[in-house]
Amino acid sequence: MRYKTVAIGLIAIFTVLFMINYAYDQNTDITVEQVSYSQTRSLMDTTVTISVIDSNETHASEVIERAFDRMYYVDRIMNNYDNKSELSILNEEGSVRDVDYELVYVINRSRYYSEVSGGAFDISIQPVLDLWASKYSPGGTYEEPTPEEINETLILVNYSAVMLEGNNITLGNDMKITLGGVAKGYAVDLAIESMIDDGIDSGFVNAGGDGRYIGTKPDGTQWRVGLQNPEKSEDAVTIINVENMAVATSGNYERYFNDTARVSHIADPRTGYPSQNLISSTIIATSAMDADAFATAVFILGEKDGMDMIEDVDGVECLLITTDKRIIRSSGFSGYEMN
C-alpha cells in the first residue's frame, strides 16, 4: 500500500464548485466578485480536491496548478512503489546521499511522532506490512503470519535506527520505511503553503480525508467538515467548523459492520499485528501532517492511551469511535463542533 488509505470519509459538506460573494476593494473603490474555483484529480492513491477563493479565474487556475505541482513533487520523492523515488532507493540500497530536504524533514518529524506516541507511530513498520501483504497475495497462505514470523520481522522495526546526517539517510540492516502515515498530510501542507505564497487567503486542500482549510468561505462563515457516520455513509456523526486548521481521520469501518474482520490497513509497530482498538480516530491540528500522523498514532494506541497522548499535546484535538460504537471527544474538541 503506497499511502495510508482512509476507510472512513470526511463528508465534503464544504465542497462547492461554484460559490460567489462580493468583497469591497478599498484601493479601487469597486466591488470585487469572489468566486470559489476548484479542481479534483487522482493523486497519491486517493482523490484530491483543491479549492481557492479568488476574483480572477486565470489566476485561480495557475494557483491550483502550482499547488498540485507541490503534491506531485512529494509523490515523486516519497512513493515507495516508484522505483525511481528517493524513498524506494533508500529502501533498496539502505542509504542515500544528498536527498531532497523534504524527505529529510518528513523523516525527522516522524521521529517526533514516534517519541510522543511511545512507538505507536513508526515509519520503519514496512517489513511488517510486507509480511502481511505476502500472506494475502497470490501464492500466499491467506492465513495470518505465525508468531515466529511476526517476532522475526519486528526485529527490523526501530525508528531510532533511521540515521540522519545532513542530507544523508541510512537504515539499519534489512530495514525499510514507509511514509504512508505522513506523506499525504505533508503534501497537503505544501499545497496550502503554495496557495498562500500566491496570495490566496481562503480555500482548502482535501486529499481523501486529509484536509487543511485556510480563511473562510466567501460568505464569511467557517468551513464545515462532516465526520461520516459508519451506519449511514450520507450522514455525519458530527459537523466541525474549521478555519486555518487541518482535519484527518484514520480507521477501519469494516469492524463496525463485521466483528470478525481481522485485517486492518494500520499495523501496530509494537506488536506486528493489525490494530483493532478503535473504529476511527479524527484529529484536528494546525498542520495536515500533524493531523495525519496523530490520527494513525491514536488509532493504534486506542481509547485511553490515545486520548492521554492528545491531551498532552498542545493545539491538537481528537474524536474517537470505539469498537463498541461509543463516541469520545478530547477536552477541546467540542469547541469546533456546530452548536
From TrEMBL:
Keywords: FAD, Flavoprotein, Magnesium, Metal-binding, Transferase. SUPFAM superfamilies: ApbE-like (SSF143631). It is an enzyme of class 2 (transferase). It catalyses: L-threonyl-[protein] + FAD = FMN-L-threonyl-[protein] + AMP + H(+). Its cofactor is Mg(2+). InterPro entries: ApbE (IPR024932), ApbE-like_sf (IPR003374). The keyword Magnesium applies. One of its GO terms (molecular function) is transferase activity. It comes from the Archaea. The keyword Amino-acid biosynthesis does not apply. Its EC number is 2.7.1.180. Pfam families: ApbE. This is FAD:protein FMN transferase. It comes from Methanolobus mangrovi.
